[in-house]
Specification:
Keywords: Signal
Helix content: 25-40%
Low-confidence stretches: 1-23
Number of strands: 19
Shape: globular
Number of helices: 9
Structural class: alpha+beta
Distance between the termini: 95 Å
Organism: Aureimonas glaciei
Protein name: Membrane protein
Length: 393
């Protein structure tokens, strides 16, 4: 007779084997869902195998991108994975291994890259993630990126961070992106027209930082950038902000569908183009501002091009100002032409700041902007309440 304990051991072994198989199937299901949603979001992710290790999922041979330009990432561990394809997946954290690649004396390194709070939408019904997005995460960060050639550092970036937060009441998504601090050494790069020009202008190296905050209210369809700031040491500060209305989850989904159709059928691009125009008609522009505050870039560029043209800086400034009236004449708007010419002239003669702003009394439909630009361009400054000002800090 078989001892009862042998039956118990066989049963335990069967359960263990069964649970291992289920976990492996879950790992594959998670990987397949991630691959599907990333492709739909135009961020292709591929892998060679999926394995489970307790509550963790390990995707082997991960690559980012499609075709020959896909970048190899290697094995990636997704910590504390829960959920299902039908209901959606949640991942506590994804710590990436430090990356280093050396080829022909060039070295690229990436360290401290991680993502936390990753969520994948379920396949049943519409996405319940913020804004109806297919993929959402709480935070992504990279400690440092460096590129060198023959031991000389060409580029560095440190302290990059992206965070997403959702207001409990309105559902507004606030995304904050800090580019971090960056440096570029043109003197250490292989000599070409660009690197030589940068050094001749007076920038053998540049250093700076950047940041942006974006707010999206999916219910109202309001998307705002407030603002994108890029600061370059001893050059200047660039800023860009806007607010667009009509940017709803349904708009995003329709746009993704059109993009997928264009990728699947490039020959039908003209039909897709008409669909995009129809989709854009749902948008309106509430405000826009582009600004530049100078801290020596303009004077250096004027000196560089004056020397290159065999002119004095004053002669070059006069020449640049003289080209504006003919360029702006096509607008057939003398008042706006005079405003722009005055602002540019003021800035070039005393570079401090230059601002282009759009601030209409009410949001202007995209179709109205397109129609005015094609049929009556002289009305655009009034339609958009477009202003160009200089040295008003």
């Amino acid at each position: 007779m078989t001892h009862p304990s042998s039956h118990a051991l066989a049963g335990i072994a069967f359960l263990l084997l069964g649970s291992t198989s289920a976990l492996a199937a879950d790992a594959q299901a998670f990987g397949d869902r991630l691959k599907q949603l990333s492709a739909e979001s135009d961020m292709p992710i591929n892998f060679t195998a999926a394995e489970s290790d307790g509550d963790n999922v390990i995707l082997k041979g991960v690559t980012l991108g499609a075709g020959p330009e896909a970048g190899a990432v290697g094995d990636v561990t997704f910590q504390n994975v829960t959920g299902s394809t039908a209901a959606g997946w949640q991942v506590e954290a994804i710590p990436f291994e430090d990356f280093k690649k050396i080829e022909d004396g060039k070295e690229a390194t990436v360290s401290g890259m991680a993502i936390s709070g990753l969520q994948l939408a379920g396949s049943e019904g519409e996405s319940t993630l913020p804004g109806g997005t297919p993929i959402f995460f709480d935070e992504a960060s990279v400690d440092s990126v460096a590129i060198s050639d023959q031991g000389k550092q060409l580029f560095s970036l440190s302290g990059t961070q992206w965070t997403n937060a959702v207001e409990s009441g309105s559902g507004t998504i606030t995304s904050s992106f800090n580019l971090g601090d960056f440096t570029l050494d043109f003197a250490a790069m292989p000599a070409d027209e660009t690197t030589k020009a940068m050094q001749d202008v007076g920038y053998p190296q540049i250093a700076g930082n950047g940041s942006v905050e974006m707010n999206w209210d999916p219910k109202k369809g309001e998307l705002s950038l407030s603002p994108f700031d890029l600061s370059v040491k001893d050059a200047g500060d660039f800023s860009f902000s806007y607010q667009i209305n009509g940017y709803t989850p349904s708009f995003v989904q329709s746009l993704q569908q059109i993009q997928a159709q264009m990728a699947a059928d490039p020959a039908g691009a003209s039909n897709s183009g008409m669909a995009i125009i129809g989709l854009v008609s749902q948008l309106s522009l509430a405000s826009l501002e582009i600004g530049f505050t100078d801290s020596s870039l303009t004077n250096k560029l004027l000196d560089y091009y004056a020397k290159k043209n065999g002119q004095t800086r004053e002669q070059l400034i006069d020449q640049l100002i003289g080209t504006l009236p003919p360029m702006l004449a096509m607008l057939q708007n003398p008042d706006f032409q005079g405003t722009v010419t005055t602002a540019v002239s003021t800035f070039l003669k005393d570079p401090q700041s230059l601002t282009i702003s759009v601030d209409p009394d009410a949001p202007v439909a995209a179709t109205q902007i397109i129609g005015a630009a094609m049929g009556a361009p002289q009305t655009l400054p009034q339609v958009l309440q477009l202003e160009v000002t200089a040295n008003e800090q």
